[in-house]
Amino acid sequence: MTEVIAAWQNNSLVPIEKLQVHKLGLKHPAVSVFVKQKDNILIQQRASIKYHSPELWANTVCTHPHWGENPEICANRRLSEELGIGKLDLQFRGELEYRAEVGNGLIEHEVVRIFVSDLSPDLDLYISPNSEEVKSVKWTSISEVKEEMKRYPQKFTEWFKIYMNQHSENIFHKVL
Description:
Blueprint: E1 4-9, E2 12-17, H1 18-24, E3 27-37, E4 40-46, E5 57-58, E6 61-63, H2 71-83, E7 91-103, E8 106-118, E9 134-141, H3 142-151, H4 158-166, H5 168-173
Parallel strand pairs: 3-8
Antiparallel strand pairs: 1-2, 3-4, 3-6, 4-5, 4-9, 7-8
């Protein structure tokens, strides 16, 4: 099934096939979610079969709303589809734009709506990764992931490096 997302053309959002958006490097809406408990965040290693950035570590969920889909609904849908996580209380943290080459001649040029779910430390979150989307998950501290990014940047997606190196203070402590 061809996935249709939105992209800007001539200052208007239009429906376009997702792979085509990335081949052309078109600016498009996206959603990123960070699930955290105190200073720890849940990160995922992308599945081997992903058409770009396979096996690289990323934030909890990063995705594109379907054409006409509400971003918060999209965020909860993908938490369920990728990680088996039920609906969470998501706080909208703001919006940011980035452009990055992600391999195989593909470009992500996203206007991203950022959501954070700050879980109670005593909550035991049930996680059941979908192997077609996610190879692995782990909890790590924000400082540990930043240090690992400095030492091994090739292990992380381009967008996750941008989030953590340029926007983490705003994502985790302020509104963008």
